[in-house]
Design brief:
Elements lengths: L23 H15 L4 E7 L4 H18 L6 E7 L3 H5 L2 H8 L27 H11 L7 H9 L3 H7 L4 H11 L18
Parallel strand pairs: 1-2
């Protein structure tokens, strides 16, 4: 049996001192890893929007992970990094998710381009920023303003393999990291007599 104890952090404490010269994604990742390590977590899954700065975000997150490994060389914390092109909402706007959850096609609410290519001014109600496309999709399906419950529905509506096909730039590598860094730890053992088993 596999069980997850998930920590939802609304406000991450700043654990990296200001004088250390780390900023942006590198500092935030290091803060998150230090926080997870202090709580004996097995894994940290960290996803950030690219917001049209994917290479810089990815480099910063990787630098943060390197700094964490330098501080804690014996740590067994598994870190999975995701940089959503352009936003996490873009990962949810796949044809499979929209058809299954809302009964609509993405082309009904956005330009006929791949979900990871959706981009535009966030405040443009008719533009292709993923937040606006998601809002229009929810309205078209008469679901109201998109909230957490709809995001969870969209996330669970499509197999990760299919989502990686529709979002190969960023979801594909993220899914591969999850598979390579997390799944090996979830190998179940045969329970002994009278034991419920664990993973």
């Amino acid at each position: 049996m596999v069980a997850f104890d998930r920590h939802r952090i609304v406000s991450l404490p700043r654990l990296v001192k200001r004088g250390e010269g780390l900023k942006g994604p590198a500092r935030r990742l290091l803060d998150a890893a230090l926080f997870a390590e202090a709580r004996d977590c097995d894994a940290l899954v960290y996803v950030q929007d690219a917001d049209n700065r994917g290479s810089a975000i990815r480099a910063g997150l990787e630098d943060g992970e390197v700094r964490f490994r330098e501080r804690h060389p014996d740590s067994s914390l598994r870190i999975v990094l995701g940089v959503a092109t352009q936003t996490i909402e873009g990962w949810l706007l796949t044809d499979g998710s929209l058809r299954t959850t809302l009964g609509i096609d993405r082309n009904d609410v956005a330009s006929p381009i791949a979900p990871e290519d959706l981009w535009g001014a966030k405040g443009d109600a008719n533009g292709d920023h993923p937040t606006q496309v998601l809002r229009r999709a929810a309205e078209k399906a008469r679901r109201g303003k998109p909230g957490v419950s709809l995001l969870v529905e969209l996330a669970g509506a499509q197999d990760p393999v299919d989502r990686a096909v529709e979002c190969p730039q960023s979801f594909g590598p993220f899914r591969d990291q999850l598979r390579d860094r997390i799944l090996p730890a979830l190998v179940c053992s045969e329970p002994a007599d009278g034991d419920s088993g664990s993973a």
